[in-house]
Each structure stands twice: as C-alpha cells, then as structure tokens.
Amino acid sequence: MDFQWLNTFVMAAQCENFRRAAELLYISQPSVTVHIKLLEQSLGVQLFQREGKKIKLTEAGRRYYDHAEKLLELYRTGLEDLNSFSQGYSTKLSLGISPLIADTILPFVIKSYTDKHPEVEISIKVLDSIDIEEAVLKEDVDLGLSCLNSQHSKLASELLYKDRILFIAPHDGRDAEMAPPLDEEELFSHYYLFTHNHPGYWDELCTTIKNKYPKIKMMKVSQTHITKRFIVEGLGVSFLPESTVRRELLEGRLLEVHDHSFNLPEANTYAIMKYKHSQQKEFLEFLSNYRI
C-alpha cells in the first residue's frame, strides 16, 4: 500500500469531489482515480459511490476513513521525527507561554538555551494564561509558563519569580530632575486607566482604585504591548509589571509614578507541568539563572 493513495483517499473524502481533490493535491484528476482504484484493490472493498457529479463514501469507506487518517498521522509524525534526527536533534521540548512572558526576556533565554543545548528541538505555542493549564493537561505542551497559578490535582505548579508592579504614565516632556512629582489624582482625572492587561491582579486592584476614585474612567486592554503603545501616545495610564516596561523607562518613553496612595500587588510567573521529567527540570534550572 502506498501512503500517497491514503492521502488521496482522505482528501477526496473531505472534498467529495475528485476534481477538487486533484487541485488541492496538485495532481491530475486521472491520478486521483487511479490512486482510489489501487487502494480499493488493495483493501478489497469499494470506498466511494457516485451521486451525480459528487462522490460519497460507502459504508466501508466511512469505516476506513478514521483508520486512514490515523495511518497518515503516524506516517507524518515519523517523517518529522526522522527529519529532526537528521538535523541533529535528539530530544524535543514544547513550551506553552503567555504573550506577556513571550514579550520580555524569554527570546533571550531561548536563544541562550538552544546555543547551549543544540540537540534539543524547541517548539513554542503562545497561549493566554487561562488556556495554558488545559494545554499542559492534554499534553499539547510539555511545560507551561503562565501568569496564573494552577490548582489542578494532576498538575504541578512552581512559582518562578515575582515581578514588581509599577504605576506607569506617558512622558510629559519635562526634565525629570526639575519637574514636580506626578500627581496621582490629577493623572486619574485626565487619563483613562488601562486595565486587565495581566490576568493575575486587576480585579482586586480595580476595586481598590474605584473605591478611592469613583469617577475614574477605565478601559480594558487585554495585551500589554498595546497598553504600552497607548500610554506612549498619551491616551492613558496603567499598572504594569516592571519587566514589561524596563526598556521604555530607560529610553524615557514612559514615566514611573512613584507617589501613589495604595499598595501595589505583584505579578507572579509560574511553571506548570504534568510530568517533572528531566527535560522540563533542566529547562527550569536554566531559566532560574535569569532575572526576568
């Protein structure tokens, strides 16, 4: 049996049309017909029946369709593994990371890790923190780096680091040493407060601020990098993890408001695992050497 016949069969079953299957597979329509006939001869059953210009799976075809998909998936997985081996990879590590973490030090960490461990093939899925737990549980990823802790009984969660939260405002154009301190009440009266750019601390923080400033205007902005862009453009203020604004503060594009009337929370980052295998532990040990 040729795996090309299986591929043609699956595509034809999905399209219910030999001509369309041929277009998607970049082969001729007669080739599609030949592949199907050869597969039917090999299996000893009829896989399709014609209904006008369309084709439909027979009962035998429907039963075999799922098996064909599984065989193709095994074939493709084998090719991918062989390709990885031929490129010098001997192990794999898949990571699920939140957009906020992906936007900070992680690119540097990944580069340093792959330089030191060229035998490890790393794949990365950028997922919202709320979805990372499920991805680890389903084993879609080996290790999750999330802004949210996991309480699931089948998963292990470790606190990686804590990040200070800073009150961030747009630069006012004045000299930092000569200008008077930024006033919290004045900022809240002139600007929107951009909220919920981090999944861990905003609900409680919003309640605290709203109790003191009932008339404050709030706007939910789900992504940190968009929040920063809005602040740079003078549209509002926000409370952001220090690691996410360090560069903008050094470059003078944003200002930290040092005087505020309430205690600020911390932003935590967690490692979430289903299995504490050597590959996960080695990566976490490597990651622990870096201050994010």
Task: Please render the helix and strand layout as text.
Layout: H1 3-15, H2 18-25, H3 29-43, E1 48-51, E2 54-57, H4 59-86, E3 91-97, H5 99-102, H6 106-116, E4 120-126, H7 129-137, E5 143-146, E6 156-170, H8 184-190, E7 192-195, H9 202-212, E8 218-220, H10 224-232, E9 236-241, H11 242-250, E10 254-256, E11 266-273, H12 278-287
Parallel strand pairs: 3-4, 3-5, 7-8, 7-9
Antiparallel strand pairs: 1-2, 5-11, 6-9, 6-10, 6-11
Helix pairs in contact: 1-2, 1-3, 1-4, 2-3
Quick summary of this structure?
By secondary structure, the protein is α/β, with parallel strands linked by helices.
The total count of helices amounts to 12
Extended strand count: 11
Residue share in β-strands? 15-25%
Q: Which residues sit in consecutive blocks of at least 5 with pLDDT less than 50? A: none
> Averaging pLDDT over every residue, what do you get?
87
How far from one another are the termini?
53 Å
Largest sheet: 9 strands, mixed
Radius of gyration: 27 Å
Structural class: alpha/beta
CATH architecture of the largest domain: 3-Layer(aba) Sandwich
> How much helix is in the residues?
40-55%
